[in-house]
Amino acid sequence: MAKVVIVEDERSIADSVAYTLKQEGFEVVVAYDGPNGLAEALGAKPDLVVLDLMLPGMDGLDVYRALRRHSSVPVIMLTAKASESDRVAGIELGADDYIVKPFYMRELVARVKMVLRRAQGRVVQDEEVLRVRDLVVDGARRLVTVGEREVQLSPQEFALLHCLARNRGRALTRTVILQQAWGEADYIDEHTVDVHIRWLRQKIEDDPGNPRRILTVRGVGYRLAE
């Protein structure tokens, strides 16, 4: 049974989401403000957090930043703000998904299940060991090394790197990357691929500003150098 923490100050929405997720078999914890939401997200050890952007006591983005200093738990941001700048802000911080109010409960449940599948590594189905020069991606052990150095990746970063490694040498569009590494491409902003690529480069490149492994293919997307 997966545990979900809901951080939402509108009690009617929070309670409706909690009821729906419980009906789907999830264990649910609810917090109605930022400080309590952060405490629950850290203390309850959830599998996923549904986090509202506008919260009393502590802004949702600040809650997310504080949470990320201690945990890599997947986060779905939930907000009434629909502007592109707000969506980009969530994506830039690394939110796994972003849902704008008003929304259908069936859509929220589908997003929750999708993000959990990604976090559990079910998108990564090929368990062979992939080697690209001194980079090794071990699907079965979910282990990445560069030379003798082990690299710690989040589940989504691992899925992205595994996708690039399986297709090493091939230029992949952002849409293809979303389909293979995220499991779908209809609801996620393509900009999130660029953000995760930047994080990966910080972790596996010797010089992230001059990448030699993950290359940008202008007008197309990205490829992993052979």
SSE map:
Blueprint: E1 3-7, H1 11-23, E2 27-31, H2 34-43, E3 48-52, H3 60-68, E4 75-79, H4 84-93, E5 97-100, H5 105-119, E6 129-132, E7 135-138, E8 143-146, E9 149-151, H6 155-166, E10 172-173, H7 174-182, H8 191-204, E11 214-217, E12 221-224
Parallel strand pairs: 1-2, 1-3, 3-4, 4-5
Antiparallel strand pairs: 6-7, 7-8, 8-9, 10-12, 11-12
What does this structure look like?
The protein has 226 residues and is an alpha/beta fold. It folds into 2 domains: 3-119, Rossmann fold, CATH 3.40.50.2300; 129-224, Arc Repressor Mutant, subunit A. The chain has 8 helices and 12 strands. The chain has helices at residues 11-23, 34-43, 60-68, 84-93, 105-119, 155-166, 174-182, 191-204, and strands at residues 3-7, 27-31, 48-52, 75-79, 97-100, 129-132, 135-138, 143-146, 149-151, 172-173, 214-217, 221-224. Strands 2-1-3-4-5 form a 5-stranded parallel sheet, with helices on both faces. The radius of gyration is 18 Å and the shape is elongated.
Task: Provide the descriptors you would attach to this structure in a database record.
alpha/beta; Rossmann fold; Arc Repressor Mutant, subunit A; 2 domains; 8 helices; about 40% helix
Helical segment count = 8
Low-confidence stretches: none
DSSP summary, beta strand count: 12
Category from helices, strands and their pairing: alpha/beta
Overall pLDDT: 86
The CATH architecture term of the largest domain is 3-Layer(aba) Sandwich
